[in-house]
């Protein structure tokens, strides 16, 4: 069973086997953590992403990490928050479960997640955090470490509270 940690910081600096990217369905980059990961990884990341043919919301696909400390990037696409009545919970759970399945398939032992969907996609961190932590505990088997790496006080507080439960 993986240990689940919560930390403040920049996910691109994480020295783990795989970092998870909060991408969009094109997988062709964007702002937020997606932009930060592409900037840190370098242009080869986009070149490899172009070969993946996109990614459905709730699914996850892996690439190399290139110039990142992490060996792999697992790109997942979170749901856009629409108030909670459009299957957002199930899709966000699927993002975490699929990302952890892909990590296991790669042979990764340590994985770092950002707060998927909690930025541009508008998912309230107070609702996302308990779901994300529960998914890490439920699906983190065969991994040693799952770390949530958060920007901002509110997001960090939500995940720290969820992880202490
Ligand atoms: N390290 C860790 N967390 C970060 C970093 C970083 N370097 N940069 C941003 N974040 C945080 C944000 O503060 C937010 O809490 O990641 C969380 C997710 O926010 P977004 O990056 O906006 O991701 P999301 O809400 O899932 O929206 C995805 O945004 O960038 C585009 O291409 C992306 O269209 C997609 C959409």
Task: Tell me briefly what this model is.
With 165 residues, this protein is α/β, with parallel strands linked by helices. The chain has 5 helices and 6 strands, in the order ββααββαβαβα.
Report on the architecture of this protein:
- The protein is α/β, with parallel strands linked by helices and 165 residues long.
- Helices cover 39% and strands 20% of the residues.
- The chain has five helices and six strands.
- β5 (110-113), α4 and β6 form a beta-alpha-beta unit.
- α3 (88-106) packs parallel to α4 and α4 (125-139) crosses α5 (153-164).
- The relative contact order is 0.23.
- It binds adenosine-5-diphosphoribose (APR).
- Adenosine-5-diphosphoribose binds next to β2 and α1.
- Adenosine-5-diphosphoribose (APR) binds next to β2 and α1.
Number-wise, the strands total: 6
H/E topology pattern: EEHHEEHEHEH
Helix content: 25-40%
Q: What characterizes the major β-sheet?
A: 6 strands, mixed
What overall geometry do the principal axes of the alpha carbons give?
Answer: globular
Strand order of the largest sheet: 1-6-5-2-4-3
Structural class: alpha/beta
> How many helices in DSSP terms?
5
**What is the average of the pLDDT values?**
97
Question: What percentage of amino acids are in beta strands?
Answer: 15-25%
Radius of gyration: 14 Å
Terminal CA distance reads: 17 Å
Which small-molecule species are bound to the chains here? adenosine-5-diphosphoribose
Poorly predicted spans: none
């Amino acid at each position: 069973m993986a240990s689940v940690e919560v930390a403040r910081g920049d996910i691109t600096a994480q020295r783990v086997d795989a970092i998870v990217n909060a991408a969009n369905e094109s997988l062709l980059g964007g702002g937020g953590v997606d932009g930060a990961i592409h900037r840190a990884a370098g242009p080869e990341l986009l070149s490899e992403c172009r070969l993946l043919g996109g990614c459905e919301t709730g699914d996850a696909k892996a690439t190399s990490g290139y110039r990142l400390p992490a060996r792999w990037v697992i790109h997942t696409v979170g749901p856009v928050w629409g108030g909670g009545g459009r299957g957002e919970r199930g899709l966000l759970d699927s993002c975490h479960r699929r990302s952890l399945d892909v990590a296991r398939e790669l042979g990764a032992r340590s994985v770092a997640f950002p707060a998927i969907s909690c930025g541009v996609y508008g998912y309230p961190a107070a609702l996302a955090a308990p779901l994300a932590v529960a998914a890490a505990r439920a699906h983190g088997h065969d991994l040693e470490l799952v770390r949530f790496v958060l920007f901002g006080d509110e997001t960090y507080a939500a995940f720290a509270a969820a992880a202490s439960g």
